[in-house]
Amino acid sequence: MYKQKYISLLFLTIALIGTSLAQDCTFGGVNYSGFTLNATTNLQEYSSTQGQTQYVWNVCATSPTCVAKAIAGSASCQLSSGQWRNTGLLNTGVFSALEGVVGAQITYGGGPICNGNKQARTTKVEMTCAEGQPTKIVGADESSTACIYEVKLSGNAACGGGDNSGSGGKNSSSDKKKPSIGGGWVFIIILVCGSVLYVAAGSIVNAKVRHLHGKEIFPNYHFWADTFPGLLKDGVLFIKSKVTGTSASSAGYQQV
Ligand SMILES: *[C@@H]1O[C@H](CO)[C@@H](O)[C@H](O)[C@H]1NC(C)=O
Ligand SMILES: *[C@@H]1O[C@H](CO)[C@@H](O)[C@H](O)[C@H]1NC(C)=O
Ligand SMILES: *[C@@H]1O[C@H](CO)[C@@H](O)[C@H](O)[C@H]1NC(C)=O
After folding, report:
1. CATH code, 150
2. What domain count does the chain have?
3. Crossing angle between the packed helical segments 2-19 and 183-204, to the nearest 10 degrees
4. Phi, psi of 196 (to 5 degrees)
5. What subcellular locations does the record give (predicted)?
6. Which residue, of 116, 148, 176, is where some domain finishes?
């Protein structure tokens, strides 16, 4: 029983760590820094234009344009009606799982409050696995909720390389498995089943083979009725004597 509580606690802890700020850019055992654009790559940020709006962002790093045009620490911004706006700060980034696909999303918050719905502008960066494929921008747009923007990337970097030991990334059935019943419960189930079997089989043998009657049909009736209570009492007294520190022999036991 306690074991199950510990298992639940363990899963809860893992879940909390999993959704906490992911400064090292890993989630579910997958290192998403493969999506990070920086000085060593051709581009230093992602950019996509949708309608009248240009979206600019980066993964696990600030975007140089956003820092220069909007605010320090910005990982996501937009150019709309000739005005640059921060739509997400790097240090607010939180990883979460994506429903039904392999990959993850980082949510960057802390943008200026939207006039319409009083929400802080937020950007969700979706990264889905495309086995063996280079990183590609799939789309960038405002979500159905005003001032929440969704930018989408795909690529092999979201698949999790062979170096991670199977947790996360690929379809890992172990993540979905419920924790099995603990050893304590297995013991109790075996004990109950064994007792039922013992009484049933013993009673049949006593009645049909040994032709006993009444209470005597109960298997080893005299042991359970006469001897066992005494043994139980001695056992309890023995444990009690050990706990209280009084000598066991005074309770009718000899030290062995
Ligand atoms: C993720 O990958 C990057 C570059 O490949 C590396 O610098 C970084 O240490 C990795 N992070 C972890 C937690 O393994
Ligand atoms: C720069 O980007 C590349 C490709 O995304 C990545 O492998 C590398 O770890 C990055 N370097 C730093 C210092 O983040
Ligand atoms: C992963 O799971 C999805 C749905 O649960 C399934 O459609 C897909 O075929 C699975 N992929 C692998 C490689 O098992």
Report:
1. 2.70.130.10
2. 2
3. 150
4. -60, -45
5. Cytoplasmic vesicle membrane; Golgi apparatus membrane; Mitochondrion membrane; Preautophagosomal structure membrane
6. 176
- Domain contains 13: no
- Return the pLDDT at 131: 94
Give the model's pLDDT for residue 12.
45
Residue 1 pLDDT greater than 80, yes or no: no
Q: Are 107 and 226 part of one and the same domain?
A: no
Of 35, 41, 127, the one to substitute when testing ligand 2's pocket (max ligand atoms within 8 A of C-beta) is: 41
End of a domain among 176, 201, 222?
Answer: 176
The mean pLDDT of the chain is: 83
Judge if the beta carbon of residue 26 lies within 6 A of ligand 1: yes
Candidate from 12-21, 52-61, 82-91, 226-235 with smallest mean pLDDT? 12-21
pTM: 0.57
82 and 118: one domain?
A: yes
The pLDDT-based confidence of 166 (bands split at 50, 70, 90) is very low
Does 4 reside within a domain? no
Domain that holds residue 199: 183-251
| 119 Cβ inside 6 Å of ligand 1 | no
Indicate whether 86 belongs to any domain.
yes
Residue 168 pLDDT: 44
Q: Does pLDDT of 58 surpass 80?
A: yes
Q: Determine the Cα–Cα distance for residues 162 and 33; give it in Å rounded to an integer.
A: 15
Percent of the chain with pLDDT over 90: 54
